[in-house]
């Protein structure tokens, strides 16, 4: 997948796939110091408007630190974004993505301060190519 694979509709759900090649400790706003292990990370978010601009903002490393993901992006490698269409919410998508990549919530409450789910950042040791294939399969199954 590449940036060209992103649906350019005005709103929707998305996953940002990133990686770390070594463990890193990062201060993440109100969450404090967080230890992130080596591996792939998938951040699940939504944009009510300007989906493409939101994804482009997440890609930049230099920006005002507004969301939890902004802190993580300072140290992570950008792999690729995926957009999802459908009516389900980001909490449900996070749960499905977690299952699809055999992952786990990287840090409780990361990216989910405005909802009640465990978190929107998923960690997996799965190879990035397999992550991509599994996300493609999830999109094909429908619902997103």
Entry keywords:
144 residues; two-stranded antiparallel sheet; five-stranded antiparallel sheet; alpha+beta; 4 helices
Oligomer type: single chain
Number of strands: 7
For the record, the count of structural domains works out to 1
Structural class: alpha+beta
**Cα Rg:** 14 Å
Strands side by side in the biggest sheet: 5-1-4-7-6
Helix share bin: 25-40%
First-residue to last-residue Cα separation: 17 Å
Sketch the major β-sheet: 5 strands, antiparallel
Strand content: 25-35%
> How would the global form be characterised?
globular
Characterization of the model:
- It is a single chain.
- The chain is an alpha+beta fold and 144 residues long.
- The chain has one domain (3-141).
- It is built from 4 helices and 7 strands, in the order ββββααβαββα.
- A hairpin with a 5-residue loop joins β2 and β3 (33-36).
Quick gist of this model?
It holds the Pfam family DUF123. This protein is of the alpha+beta class.
List the helices and strands and how they pair.
Blueprint: E1 12-20, E2 24-27, E3 33-36, E4 39-47, H1 51-59, H2 68-73, E5 77-84, H3 90-100, E6 104-105, E7 121-124, H4 128-141
Antiparallel strand pairs: 1-4, 1-5, 2-3, 4-7, 6-7
């Amino acid at each position: 997948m590449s940036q060209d694979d992103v649906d350019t509709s005005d709103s929707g759900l998305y996953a940002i796939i990133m990686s770390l090649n070594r463990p890193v400790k990062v201060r993440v706003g109100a969450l404090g110091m967080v230890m992130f292990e080596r591996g792939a990370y998938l951040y699940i978010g939504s944009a009510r408007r300007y989906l493409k601009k939101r994804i482009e903002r997440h890609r930049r490393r230099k920006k005002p630190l507004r969301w939890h993901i902004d802190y993580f992006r300072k140290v992570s490698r950008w792999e690729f974004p995926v957009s999802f269409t459908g009516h389900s919410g980001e909490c449900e998508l996070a749960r499905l993505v977690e299952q699809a990549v055999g992952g786990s919530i990287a840090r409780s409450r990361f990216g989910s301060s405005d909802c009640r789910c465990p978190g929107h950042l998923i960690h997996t040791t799965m190879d990035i190519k397999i992550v991509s294939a599994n996300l493609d399969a999830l999109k094909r199954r429908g619902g997103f």
